[in-house]
Amino acid sequence: MIEFLLNGEPLRITDEDPNCTLLDFLRDRLHHTGSKEGCASGDCGACTAALGELDGETIHYKSINTCITPLGNVHGKHLVTVEELKQGQQLHPAQQAMVDCHGSQCGFCTPGFVMSLFVLGRDEISAPDRHRIEESLGGNLCRCTGYRPIIEAAVQMFDPALQAERDPFTEREAEWVKVLQSMNRDQDVELSGGGHHYVAPATSARLAQLLQHYPAARLVAGGTDLALELTQQLCSIDTLIYTGRVREMIGVSETDTHLIIGAAASYNQFGPALTALYPECRELLERLGSRQIRNQGTLGGNIGNASPIGDMPPLLLALGASLRLRGAERVRELPLEQFFLGYKRTALQAGEFIEAILVPRPAPGDSLRVYKISKRFEDDISSSCGAFLLSLDQQIVTRVRVAFGGMDAIPRRALECEQALLGKPLDDVAIAAAMAALARDFTPISDFRASSDYRLQVSQNLLKRLQLELNSPSATLLSRVNQHA
Amino acid sequence: MRNLPETSTPTGTDQQPIKREQISGGVQQSVRHESAERHVSGEALFTDDRAVPAGTLFAYVGLASIARGKILSMDLSRVLAAEGVVSVVTLEDIPGHRDIGPVFPGDPVFADGEVLFHGQPLFAVAATSQTLARRAARLAQVDYEPWPADLTIEQGLAAQSFVRPSHTQRRGDAAAAIAGAPRRLSDRMHIGGQEQMYLEGQVSLACPDEEGGITLYTSNQNPTEVQKLIAEVLAIPISMVTVDMRRMGGGFGGKETNANQWAVIASLLARKTGRAVKVRLARADDMTATGKRHHFVSDYDVGFDDQGLIQGLDMSLSAGCGYSPDLSDAIVDRAMFHADNAYFLPTATITGHRVKTDTVSNTAFRGFGGPQGMVAIECVMDDIARAVGRDPLDVRKDNLYGPEGGRDTTHYGQTIERHILPGLIEQLEQTSDYRQRRQDIAAFNRSQPILRKGLALTPVKFGISFTAQHLNQAGALLHVYTDGSIQLNHGGTEMGQGLFTKVAQIVATVLQVDMARILPTATRTDKVPNTSPTAASSGTDLNGMAARNAAETIKQRLTDFAAEHFQTTSERVRFHNNRVYIAEDQVLSFGELAQLAYLHRISLSATGYYRTPKIYYDREQAQGHPFFYYANGAAVSEVLVDTLTGEYRVTRVDILQDVGQSLNPALDIGQIEGAYIQGMGWLTTEELVWGGDGRLQTNSPASYKIPAIGDTPAEFNVALLADSPNVEATIFHSKAVGEPPLMLSISVWSALRDAIASLADYQLSPRLDTPATPERVLNAINSIKAITTLQQQNRGAS
């Protein structure tokens, strides 16, 4: 049985296939057809809803793709769909601004945009800048408008004249908080139906136990990748174990030496702490998936998935991060670079899971650069993603870690390239040698994203960009087109 | 709910404000989309949102997994045995026509013994849920004998394999003119295709009626055609099929013919099972099994003088059509009609090849071949400019059609009667500050080691009308009820372009009532029959005119009635601002007059009809007047390119578009902005990639990248050309706006080439096939750097 608030009213589900996505549940079971299916893969945003989670005595809403959210993941949360925004005949400011700015044409993507705008409206007090608007709406595709009127609506919805007299999300928040608190207790949450089973434990110890009990179970965190097996490959998954309630896995903490990121923390949860230590990775975090994906996706998922094109591993490899792996019997720490064994193969043993990711604090004198290359700036998968951590002493490279994603079956370090740079100044000779070394490090594949030649050349050229940026910080802007205004 | 305007009994003082007061929602007002509030609230019902009848089944198709070959056997026993399965249909179950080719045959409902492309439907299965149907459809056991497949245009050309005969338009002796010209260039360009990527995928719900009829709810740009095809496939009269189409979640041409197959399959299964059947394609299958914008190869040979004035052009446009003709004949014709874009070609030979490939059959997409023809000639313009060392804008301006010196006739014989572009370009050049920016950019490029800026102004002259003459007709049906409320119906379909809004504005203006009184209703074949697809930018031109005629008919009846009833003359009866003025002291609200007319047995329902005058094309001679008029516009785009990675951004765009007397400036600007961005996607990030096995690899928005919100240029200035009513008798002297602005995006591609050419001081013209992905841009940069280096070495050696 799972429980959640749907548009302010408690809903209890006792018998439902946990392989059902939230979108299918809304549309097919409840006939709430405001949320649309455009892709069923989390790439278009037409199904966007707001998911409110308890944050102390308040509820924090975030945009999610309902099409790739396993139904069980909403337990103990407040799901707000587009049907709820219009109160009587009164449009919500996000809706009214979209109408006034001619922000809809065919109208199919519109409910999704409205929900992303709704969340933006709750996160901000006044109209944000263009960059923030794009970051919030980058996961909502519109094929009709060209977006200009939607950007205008995102500003206009903050106009005080549009604000409604009564806002149920404020008025009823205290009441809803109590309901959600009553739903969020420490015992397992379970949902069964259609011969499939879903369990959401509250502790690491219990998770380890469950993995022993269900050795074939699949771990699900944000579900942003796993759900594709349900919606695209039409698989059935017998047992799903959700990590998002596990106390030890959802937090972010700091020690003198490390930032410790819970494996089930979403990008938008751990992002601020990571960028506080390493501001240079802000752009990567803003371009990793979309806002909705970053609200759901987790670092543990990105690593555990062991995809050659995950964007966090190159960064974490350059930073020298390690993993805390927990099993029923023991906890161990493993450097990330020993984790990836081969295409989608990892060093995880049976019954083991990633509990946390340990990121070393920056050393004085370290310079970090992370570059992502893709066809489209927002919400695209990298053709190549390079991360460079260098220590320079008297302009000599004294320490260097270079790692790439998209260049091999696993994300990994470029050891020859590192050797070519170590002990050298960042001059044309060393960079040329490092570029040549990179060609020995990697023989990338050709696919629909990029050819082997392009992957290699662009990765080599990133070393030139690195040189330019580190040698003349003022030239940073003039070696990159891909920064928001 | 819709609020009817107040209809209080007016007094004599109403005479005073008659000039000032206007109805709300008349033409030329920036009225919001008629469904805007329903869009934002999620209340607008799309086909998949409708409540389905009890017992509705969900159908799905089984798709071929090879590109070309013979089907040796197809065992569907596992499909039939799968959970939830109720029925299966194959070609053998079809009582009537098995081919649903829209113009020419060649499109079987299911593969007929041979597989024609990877992803071709083989059969369909109906089950109790969408998921069960999809699962079952994957269980078929099919044995193939694979045959070699032609997957590229070059392979098809080499095999001389065509879906339709080639066609040539000739003016004068181009070969002689080119040979005799002071300068000559030739090159080849690959122009990529484009997926429509309507956000709402293909969907149809077929409900069985009495005596074997079907009522179909669907997302389709052409209700009449799908009605006819269902009738033919089921072997029943057309009158037994009713198609209802309220709105599409985007169409862009992808639902002009490519929505039919799914509707036919749903109808077949509805007929077989006696239950309602819904077919809705999952995105990857939608992208795999439906046609796209044609990819082209263009080859040109051009002769010109030292100033860059064209003397002769020989261009061949070879379109990758896929396995069947579909609409390719007309699409390649339109590419040929636009191979001049806005430029006078003193002599020209334009040849269009309809190349057959063993891939999905390509189809309509906003612009319908026009964009491909236009980008081909714009490539020539840039190449000429760099060859003669002039700013491409100057070469473009010199080559424009003009009223002087016999430079006003197209290569297909149509005279350009109105020369709007010279003035429009001049104005845009000023407002965009083109010349100053050109200088600033040159300075920037000289000072920067890595980044390069590019700038380009490109014009658009786009012919308006269906090139198939009989499609240029439309009908409408208007009902006035006794409370003065109105239902409006016509043959056009609403896919987001605002057609229903504009036509309601037109009727509101004619009848002088607020638009809120008028309810646009779903396009239905039982209300207005024998309609044309909503396509060719003609939706408003045709249906707006038909609706106006219907409104005029009712207005005339009411006028005549009022004159007789109130014993005055028709001339004295005036409709204005929701009221009807009969005499100095006699004023009725529109609703009062409707009620009175009803009581006196006056018909308050009327049809309207329209056909476009003036147009003809003699295909044998390749001469004629195929377009009622031309829509014109121009755009200036500026880009910033990273020469290390090939990444780029469009930083500013200025657009000036001629929409005639705009029916709705807000909607027109929305069409222009949206079309520009869609065209930009076509030319930049939207890359279709097929594997060697013929399978589409970019089959989802995860792998096929349409522009996202961050791709919107930071500075995006769009203006409508002022004081430019259409001289032709179009609806309120407006001009079509659906397709023309898509081609404004060619300025982005041209600006990218400009930025790359800066690396060779604009002396070389980089080859840049489309889509110009960062990879292609970097390759172009590599090539131009290599040539420059070689030239320097040669100079050093000599």
From TrEMBL, chain A:
Q: Which UniProt keywords apply?
A: FAD, Flavoprotein, Iron, Metal-binding, Oxidoreductase
Q: Show where the FAD-binding PCMH-type domain sits.
A: 191-364
EC top class, in one word? oxidoreductase
Can you tell which superkingdom this protein's organism belongs to?
A: Bacteria
Q: What is its EC number?
A: 1.17.1.4
Kindly give the SMART domains that the UniProt entry links to this protein: CO_deh_flav_C
An example Gene Ontology molecular-function term: FAD binding
Kindly provide the name given to this protein in its UniProt entry: Xanthine dehydrogenase small subunit
TrEMBL record, chain B:
EC number(s) on record? 1.17.1.4
Spell out the Polar residues composition-biased ranges: 1-16
Q: Which PANTHER family does its entry note?
A: ALDEHYDE OXIDASE 1-RELATED (PTHR11908:SF132), XANTHINE DEHYDROGENASE (PTHR11908)
What protein am I looking at?
Answer: Xanthine dehydrogenase molybdopterin binding subunit
UniProt-annotated stretches for the region Disordered: 1-39
Please give the organism.
Pseudomaricurvus hydrocarbonicus
Which residues does UniProt assign to the signal peptide? Answer: none
Could you tell me which residue ranges the Aldehyde oxidase/xanthine dehydrogenase a/b hammerhead domain spans? 41-148
Q: Which Gene3D superfamilies match?
A: Aldehyde oxidase/xanthine dehydrogenase, a/b hammerhead, Aldehyde oxidase/xanthine dehydrogenase, molybdopterin binding domain
Highest taxon in the source lineage: Bacteria
EC main group: oxidoreductase
Q: Which gene encodes it?
A: xdhB
Per its UniProt record, the required cofactor names are: [2Fe-2S] cluster; Mo-molybdopterin cytosine dinucleotide; FAD; Mo-molybdopterin
- One Pfam family named in its UniProt record: MoCoBD_1
